[in-house]
Amino acid sequence: MLFLKSTTVTKAPGIYDVDIAAKPPGKTFGVFIATDPDHPPTAVLEKLAELGFKNTYSGGYTHKDRGKVLDLHFQKDGTDLFQGWKAEELEGNMAAITALFSSIGIVITPRVMSLAEAYA
After folding, report:
1. Using the 8-state DSSP alphabet, how is residue 12 labeled?
2. Which tens digit of pLDDT belongs to each residue from 11-65?
3. Which of 9, 98, 107, 109 is most buried, most CB within 10 Å of its CB?
4. pTM above 0.90, yes or no
């Protein structure tokens, strides 16, 4: 779940926040999106599916400021060990993710999770 300060400000229509993160060692990234369930970013979600990302988690909650949030997680299998991404898959997938979110005005900053966060 992404930490949201508020549900009154969105980064793009229907999107409160986006996190592009990988479990250590950081070769295979997931897409984590906090969305407005009443106004979902349908085009973005459809494009993620077209890129091969599958929804692995969907959970709703009410933020402390009473706004509704739908937390969505997406993963894409690769061809490396344990369905991870090989170097060329990493490069291609990250370029596609960057292009998708930059097209709606969201700058992403991929990161590698801490061990505690990744396996909590």
Report:
1. B
2. 999 999 999 999 888 889 999 999 999 999 999 999 999 999 999 999 999 999 9
3. 98
4. yes
